[in-house]
Amino acid sequence: MKAAVLYHPGGADHFILEDRPIPKVTENQVLVRVKAFGLNRSELMTRKGLSPNVKFPRILGIECVGEVVEDPSGEYRPGQKVAAFMGDMGRQYDGSYAEYTLLPRQILCPFESSLSWEVLGALPEMFQTAYGSLHIALGIKAGEKLLIRGGTSSVGLLAAQLAKIAGLTVTATTREVSKTQLLLTNGADEVLVDDGSLLLRHNLDAKPRFDKVLELIGTTTLKDSLACTIAGGKVCMTGMLSEQWSIAKFDPMGYIPAAVSLTVYDSGQVRVSREFFQQFIEQVEAGKISPPIKKIFPLDHIVSAHEFMESNSGGGKIIITT
Question: What gap in Å lies between CA 40 and CA 243, rounded to an integer?
Answer without folding.
Answer: 12
